[in-house]
Amino acid sequence: MDFLILAIIILAVVAIFQLLKIYELSRELRPDEAPVITEADSRMNARMGMIFIFGFFAFILWCVYKWGDKLLPEPASKHGVEIDQLWDVTMIIIGIPFVICNFLLFFFLNKYTYKKDRKADYFAHSNKLEAIWTVVPAIVLSALIVYGLRVWNDVTDHTTISANENPVNIELYARQFDWTARYAGDDNKLGDANYQMINGSNALGLITPEAIADRLAEITKDSTALRAKLDEQVKLEGIIFPKKSKPVDPHAHGAASHDGEHHAPAPNPEAHAKGEEHGGGHHEDPYAWAGNSKPVRAIVDELEHLTRMKRSIETFAKKRFTSSGDDLLVKGEFHLPVNKAVVFQFRAQDVIHSAYMPHFRVQMNAVPGMKTNFAFTPTITTAKMRENTKNPTFDYYLLCNKICGNAHYNMKMLIVVEDQASYDKWIKEQKTFAAQMAALLAPPAADSTTTKTLVPPTDTTMAKAPTAKPVK
Ligand SMILES: [Cu+2]
Questions:
Q1: For residue 404, how far is its CA from the centre of ligand 1 (angstroms)?
Q2: What is the pLDDT of residues 383-397, one digit of tens each?
C-alpha cells in the first residue's frame, strides 16, 4: 500500500515535469510577441499604487491617534524622560524622510505612466546624485547615533551615582521563577556571594561565617553518604582496589581526607590536576581500578566535585570577605524611596533572565555567572501615579523579560515607590539574612511565625541528601 502511494507520487512528479517541458518547447515555436501593456493598464497600476500608499499613511495616522500615547506608560524615573525624548526625536527624524520618499515613489509612478510615443530619459551615472544621497543620510544618521550613545552612556553610568549620591544599594536575584531583592543592610554594601554556597538555607549563595559552616557541614554529610554508596557499589560489582581491599571508611570526614593509603578509591583531585598539568605526556587514569564500571565512576566524579567545592569554599573563607549577614532579603514586593538614586545589581541562578521595569524605562539582563548593574532615580510615588493614571489599583512591577521557562509569565515582583519616611519604616521591618538563616536552621517548633518570610529552598535534593549508612 505504502509502495503504491509512493509510486503514484513519483509518477505525478514525473508527469508534471514532462508537462512543463512540453510547455517550454511549444513556447519556442510560437512567434515572438512583445508583452502587451496598454496605457490603460499602466494608469490602473499607478492609481492602485496611489490608493495603497494613502491607505497606508492613513492607517499609520490612525494607529498613532489610537495608541500613540499607550506605547509606554508615563516615565517614572529621571532618565526615563531622556529615553522618551530620544525615542521621539528618532521617530521624527526617520519618519519624515520615510513619508516623503514613499509619497514620491508612488507620485512618479502616477506622473509617468506608459504613453506610446513618450520615451524615458536615460543616464547611466551621476556623481552629484550619488554624493547627495550618501552624504546627507550619513550626516543625519551619525548625529542620531552620537545622540543615542550619549544618552546610553548617561543612562547606564552607575559609577558616578555610586560615588556621589549615596544611593540605596539593591540586588535583584533571579531564578526560575521568582525574584529576591537584597538590600545592602546597615553597611550599605552588598555582601559577597558565591554560587558554591547555594543550598537549601541559602538560595542566593551569600557568604557569612555561619553560612560557610552550614555549607561545609552539608558537603561533608553528602560526601559521607556518597562514600557509603561507593562502598556498596564496589562490593556489589566485586571491584578490587589496587593496594588495599578494605572498603572506604564511611566515617571519613568528607572528601577532604584523601590520603590514598587508607582509602584507595577516594578521589584524589590533586593527582588528577597533576595529570592535566603535565598534559601532552602520558595521561594516567587515577581511577583505573574502577575499570569500566559506570556507576562507580559516576560516584567518584561526584565525590571529586564535592572535594573541589569544599576546597574552594575553604579558600575564600580564609580570605577577607564582606559578610552578607546584615543584608535584608525580601520577596514578593520591594520598596524604593522617591527621588533617591538606587543602584541595582543583578544576578541569576540558573538561566538568563531579564529585569524589566517598564515605568522606569529599565531593562537589564540577569546572567548566571556575572553581575550586571543599572541605576535610576524614581520620581513618582505609587500613590501619585494612581492619581495620574486615574487608576486606584495601579502598581509598579518588576517583570522577567526573557522567556526563561514554563512559569516565566508569572515571574514578577511588586514595586512600591513611597516617601522617605514610609520607606524607612518599611525597611526597619525587614529581616536580615543572618536572622532568616538562623530561623531556618533552628528547630521548627522554636518560632513558627518566622518561617513565613523565609526564602524557600532552591534545590530540595541538596537539602535532603541521604544520610550515611554504617558499613560493618
Ligand atoms: Cu525569568
A1: 5
A2: 999 998 888 999 999
